[in-house]
């Protein structure tokens, strides 16, 4: 299928004018909340930033299909903290420290947002696959038992169904 699902989502989001504009708007919004007292966003502002970014991306004017489908609600605190750890540990010293506070500048904030929404979308897509496959497989097994189909036929039908579900979800990750 080519590139991995997370690379596909990351490419789609990073090339999206709506996503980039929403990141800029969110960064500016968070700076205004602190009355520009800092050069970036503080970690305690990230849940607010994630919610604001999600709201911006799901408004009718800037609705990003990928976000609408795979990120139906704002990322939770665990996902937000994980993305922060990944961004700040990726390159030591890349995030500024001012008076002992970790501060995300504009570039790091955008990187954090991209990672956060990429991993949230891919995680939700994985959950969708895990939710759809067992039901379909059970249905195919039930039909196979009723019509007394051979094991090979039922096995092939399950394989084709599973491939179809995975392909469908993968293709929908491009937005």
TrEMBL record:
According to its UniProt entry, this protein's organism is: Salix udensis
List the PANTHER family: OS04G0495300 PROTEIN
What's this protein's name? Uncharacterized protein
Reading the lineage from the top rank, the first entry is Eukaryota
The keyword Membrane is assigned to this record: yes
The UniProt keywords, alphabetically, are: Membrane, Transmembrane, Transmembrane helix
Q: Which residues cross the membrane?
A: 129-147, 153-173
């Amino acid at each position: 299928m080519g590139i991995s699902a997370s690379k596909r989502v990351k490419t789609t989001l990073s090339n999206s004018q709506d996503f980039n504009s929403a990141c800029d708007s969110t960064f500016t919004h968070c700076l205004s909340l602190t009355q520009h007292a800092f050069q970036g966003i503080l970690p305690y502002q990230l849940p607010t930033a994630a919610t604001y970014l999600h709201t911006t991306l799901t408004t009718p004017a800037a609705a990003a299909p990928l976000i609408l489908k795979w990120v139906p609600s704002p990322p939770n605190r665990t996902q937000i903290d994980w993305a922060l750890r990944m961004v700040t540990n990726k390159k030591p010293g890349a995030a500024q420290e001012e008076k002992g506070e970790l501060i995300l500048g504009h570039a790091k904030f955008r990187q954090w947002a991209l990672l956060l929404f990429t991993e949230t979308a891919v995680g939700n897509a994985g959950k969708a696959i895990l939710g759809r496959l067992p039901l379909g497989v059970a249905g195919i097994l039930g039909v196979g038992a009723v019509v007394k189909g051979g094991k090979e036929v039922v096995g092939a039908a399950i394989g084709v169904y599973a491939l179809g579900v995975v392909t469908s979800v993968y293709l929908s990750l491009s937005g």
